[in-house]
Amino acid sequence: MNFFDSVLKRPFAAYWATMADKVSRDAVEALAGRLFDGMTIMAGGFGLCGIPEMLIAAIREAGVKDLTVVSNNCGVDDFGLGVLLAGGQIRKMISSYVGENKLFAELYLSGKLELEFNPQGTLAERIRAGGAGIPAFFTKTGVGTLVAEGKEVREFDGELYVMERGLTADLSIVKAWKGDRAGNLVYRLTARNFNPMMATAGKVCIAEVEKIVETGTLDPDHIHTPGIFVDRIVEGVHEKRIEQLTTRKREVA
Known about the structure:
The chain is built from 8 helices and 11 strands. By secondary structure, the protein is an alpha/beta fold.
């Protein structure tokens, strides 16, 4: 039976389910054969919201080093990407905010950690551009500041713009709410953040999700990352720490 006969004689979702099962048993298996010293990793998340914490922990256990990590921030001292810093595994960070990690500051100020700062919107667009195959773009953000030092500045319609390069990675690790066995992903609320664009910008993308469902059960209109971008998917329980707990004082009756 050829491909077209197979598709015509049974529902496509059922056929695809037999062809594209990307589920791994755990984070270690999902990362098997994908890690090496000196690699570049993109890690989704904003603060501690929507971070791929299981995959980060597995990278910590694997012991790979000299990593360049592209992420909005670097977790906190004992959680998220902060555990890779504590293990001495990160050589360079490409980030927009690092103010919640004391170890990060110590390593940077002592010259033990390289840092490439980006305005947050610029970082997001560099990742999106990399995923779209766009090598560079021009933006007004950063013109006349330290951000523009060493970069090409060009005039368009009487305004100055600085050139920024697109970003890609050897591996993207992302966190989603739901995913099916073919790797289609749905994110939830603000946990979407950098995850969808990072999923497109890695040579390999591995996703961890809170729940895996059967292929064909997700509403196509609700899918944020199509499975074609995802190589492996793993389900797990997440701690979901609150980075800055702020509560309103209880009113006294």
